[in-house]
Amino acid sequence: MTGTHLAAILPEKRARLQVVERATPEPGPNEVVIEVKAIALNPIDYSQRDTGMPPVPVYPAVLGCDVAGVVAKVGANITTAPAPGSRVLAMATSFFHDGSPDHGAFQKYTLAQSEAVVALPDAISFEQGATLPICFMTALNAWVTIGISLDTRYAPEDKQAVLIWGGASSVGTFAVQTAKLLGFRVYVTASPWHHEYLETLGAHAVFDYHASDVVSQIVDAVNRDGVALHTAHCVVIGSLQPTLDVLKETKGASAARVVYSPPLLPDHPTLDGVEIKWNFPPMQSEAVLNKHMYECFHVWLRNGLESGTIVPSPPVQIEDGGLEGLNAALDKLKVGVSGRKIVLQI
Question: What are the start and end residues of each CATH 3.40.50.720 domain in the chain?
Fold first, then answer.
C-alpha cells in the first residue's frame, strides 16, 4: 500500500490528541492492515494521554486498542481468512510492538498481528465489534493469571463458584460470560439497574455493591446454594477488600485465589490463605504470548461469536466527531460511564 491516512496522534507527554496525516504502513509477514470503521475507548487511553501511564515509549504516539473494520491488505505469510475485503474486529495496539505508532488504534489504517484479528459475523455491527478485543482478552487473561486453564469446563456437580466484583464494566461483562462458559456458578456485584442485564449474560445472582450488608448477602447466598466460592476477579478499583471479606467467610480451610485487574499497589489488602495476583497476559516469550492471543481470539472469541455463546457487551454509546472527536469522548469516559462502551465511527 502507498499513500497517507489521518491519525489522531499524541505529540508529547500530557498533551491533547491532534489529527494529522501519517504514511500508511505495509503489513509484516504475519500482520494485517485494517481500514478502521469503528474505535472503542478504554480507561487506559485517557490515562496514557493525560499521565503517560502505562509508559508510552515513542512520541508522537498513536494510542488505542480496539477497532473493527475491513481488511485492506495481509502479510505474505497469511494464507487463510480473513482475506482483503473481510469485515473484522482486531486488537490493534502498540503495547506489544515497542510503541510503534503504526499499530495504534486511533487512525484510519492500522496494523494488527494476525493472532488478534477475527472475522466479524454479519449480524454484528462494526460498532459492536469494536467493543470486544482488549476487554475480552483481559477477561480471559484473568483466569490464566490465577492458574485456571481455558480448557476448564466445570460440571454442575463440581459446585465451583466465582465472585466478579464490578460486573457492569466492559471487562466485567466478559468476565461474567467467560466464567459461565468455564462452568462456574457466577456471583456478581453491580448497581441495581444493571442486574437484569448481567443475568442475561450468565450471572446466577447479582448484588448491589452499595448495600451496607453486601458481604453478608453474598456469603448467605453462597451458603444457601451449597457451592464452593474460592475464586474471585476484582474488576474495579476498591474491590479487593470487600472481596477478601467475602472469601474469609466462604473459603473455609481451603486456599483461595483472586485476580485484580486495576493497578495493584504494593500496600494492597491481604488475607491468609488467599493468593492475589495482578491481571496480566502471559509474556514469558513472544511465542507464549502469540499462542495465548490465538486461543483468546480464534478459539474462544471467533467460536463464541459464531455460536452465539459470546455476545458484544456492554451496550454501545456512539459519540460524534470521528478522530476529531476523540479528545471529547475520552474526557467523557474519564468523568465516568456506567454500563456503556463509548465507540466512535471513523
Answer: 137-278
